[in-house]
Write a structure and sequence with these properties.
55% helix, alpha+beta, Helix Hairpins
Length: 438
């Protein structure tokens, strides 16, 4: 039961908070309505009905005690002037069939009980026929006494006032609750938006607002962001230092090789080793650096993909580019270009034909890179994203490289709040799908 209720409850904090406020209010109003209508109104109605019944009983006693008033003119005048009742003596005969009873009426049951108790004669009442008039008929020895009285004389009929007050106060309280909740939830939404923007690598101007607990969470987020940024700055500074020192050593190696005798048989091998070391160093540093520090900005995906298409065609590979939707997306331009470039280079290395498709909707940017190469086995598609992993099969993800191409691509996509996945391509090879929020 709890699981069933949980699935149907609203998921948002605003809606749940409203339910927390509305549910007790509805229960309280229902209890008050029951207590007021069933207790107070029932008591008042019983007293009013008893008073009307006593008046009718007194009129019956007078009519039977003074039979000389054959036309009941005096009795009718007294009933009208003093008691507010309209009476008429009908010829003797059977009472009408029972009138329809209302579904819920305190008056009908209370008045019937008082007539049975105080008068104890056959009777007939109609509380439905005319909304503001009650008709009572009492069977006497000489005829049937017909009494008409206003409903207000026997029934406390102010339920509409009570309901209006109840609904009016509920509406006012609910309006205040909604305004208050919106003001309290807005800082939480701003905190969530700031955290999401920071996760996507975007700048955000966030200042804690709201209740004390929300402000504490906001200050904790700001402090966490500062620590992360400080750690990233320290790592970037360290990597820049390492890069500078190692590049200096590699430059010395290259200079030494340039001064060596070109006829030396081992010279070509040494040059290849130095070039390979330089390339591996750049890959390792790029992976460790993660393109930190670059800010997001609106980027034309069409122009970016056309550049990658030109690079692939210069290497002799037929490449198609299709962009649908708005081509402008907010990403870190250099990092995102490198992410797609790694996937395109992977396709260039193992296929002859390449297709790049970009789709932009209001929430997501999806870029698919297809090739006609040998593909990657299904059971190894998660493994190839791990750093330094290279396949032994026909398709080697980083043949002759470091095994960081797909790892860097996924790391960049995830730093944008998205991801990279592999699937079968319609071209017969591998499809790499990059999906990032915009």
């Amino acid at each position: 039961m709890a699981r069933w209720v949980g699935k149907r409850m609203p998921k948002g904090l605003f809606a749940r908070a409203l339910i927390i406020i509305i549910a007790p209010m509805v229960i309280l109003q229902s209890v008050l309505a029951y207590a007021f209508m069933e207790r107070h109104w029932q008591t008042v109605t019983r007293r009013l009905s008893a008073a009307v019944t006593q008046d009718i009983a007194a009129l019956i006693d007078v009519a039977e005690s003074y039979p000389q008033d054959k036309d009941y003119e005096t009795l009718g005048r007294i009933a009208s002037d003093r008691l507010g009742l309209d009476i008429e003596m009908l010829p003797a005969g059977p009472l009408p069939p029972p009138a329809p009873k209302p579904f819920f009426s305190i008056l009908d049951s209370t008045l019937s009980r008082e007539i049975r108790t105080q008068i104890g004669r056959p009777y007939w009442i109609d509380t439905v026929g005319r909304s503001n008039i009650i008709e009572v008929r009492i069977q006497l020895e000489k005829g049937t006494l017909r009494v008409l009285t206003r409903r207000s004389q026997a029934y406390a009929s102010n339920s509409h006032i009570f309901l209006m007050w109840m609904l009016g106060t509920s509406f006012v309280l609910l309006s205040i609750a909604v305004a208050f909740l919106r003001n309290q939830i807005r800082p939480i939404l701003k905190l969530a938006a700031a955290a999401e923007s920071f996760g996507k690598g975007r700048d955000t101007d966030f200042h804690p607002r709201g209740a004390r607990e929300v402000r504490q969470a906001g200050h904790a987020f700001i402090e966490m962001r500062r620590r992360i940024e400080r750690a990233m700055d320290q790592r970037t500074a360290m990597l820049n230092g390492v890069s500078h020192d190692l590049r200096t050593i590699l430059t010395r190696f290259k200079l030494s090789l340039a001064l060596m005798d070109e006829d030396a048989p081992e010279l070509d091998a040494l040059k290849k080793d130095v070039d390979e070391m330089s390339r591996m160093l750049e890959a390792y540093l790029a992976f460790a650096r993660g393109d930190a520090g670059e800010q997001s900005s609106p980027t034309d995906m069409g122009a970016l993909l056309e550049e990658l298409k030109a690079d692939a065609e210069r290497q002799g590979h037929a490449t198609d580019v299709v962009v649908s939707g708005d081509p402008v997306a907010t990403v870190r331009p250099d990092a995102f270009k490198r992410c797609i470039a790694n996937l395109v280079n992977n396709a260039v290395r193992h296929g002859d034909r390449i297709a790049i498709t970009a789709t932009r909707d209001p929430r997501w940017l999806t870029v698919m890179v297809d090739d006609d190469g040998p593909g990657v086995p299904l059971d190894q598609r998660d493994e190839v994203f791990k750093p330094f992993v290279r396949l032994d099969e026909a398709r080697n993800v980083d043949e002759g490289g470091t095994g960081l191409g797909l790892a860097i691509a996924r790391d960049i996509a995830r730093s944008h709040g998205g991801d990279v996945a592999l699937a079968d391509s319609p071209l017969g090879g591998l499809r790499a799908v990059v999906r990032v929020p915009v």
